[in-house]
Amino acid sequence: SLLQEKMVFYFVSSVVEPPTTLFMGLDKYENEDLIKWGWPEDVWFHVDKVSSAHVYLRLKPGQTLEELPHAVIEDCAQLVKANSITGNKMNDVDVVYTMWENLNKTASMDVGQIGFHKQKAVKKIRLPSRDNAIVNRLNKTKVEKEVDFRAEREKRDRDLREDKKREFKKEEEAKKEEEKARKEAAELKSYSNLMTEENMTSNRDGGDDSDDFM
Question: What is the spatial distance between Cα 105 and Cα 125, in angstroms, rounded to a whole number?
């Protein structure tokens, strides 16, 4: 599994509560694996039109790209700009970001190269200049880890399948309970109807039963 493991840098963005983890491949070979084994909930950041690192952020369950706070987007953009040899020196630079699923990697592309399925789904943020306060704050949280991207993605998919199975089972059990309760209610109703009919019959008989208790 050593061959599978790649070096990844992790950063913590504390501009939101709870803090969000950002991650970045060591080089373009690491980026290839991140592209290949990314998660549908990953957001990808890159400096527009120049070579840069690929920075990712993983959305929380149920969170959408539109709900991502601007401060977090700015953290990711500043981090990706700081990790671009050309972009780092540029002012008024655009950083593009999109969901991982919108990344389009074809066989003819070079290592680290990427395109998009839908250009419309690519968003941009313009950075007037490097913000050292942001970059230094993020760099202080930097941790290096060796990660097997494929294993992580496969575990995520497995967990998701298990969750769906559990959810389905719960729904099925709830349906059974509902059906059971419905049947019991129907039986009770027909039983009480029956009782009412019996009462009516016994009342019509003249109600002489009281003698039996003597």
Answer: 23
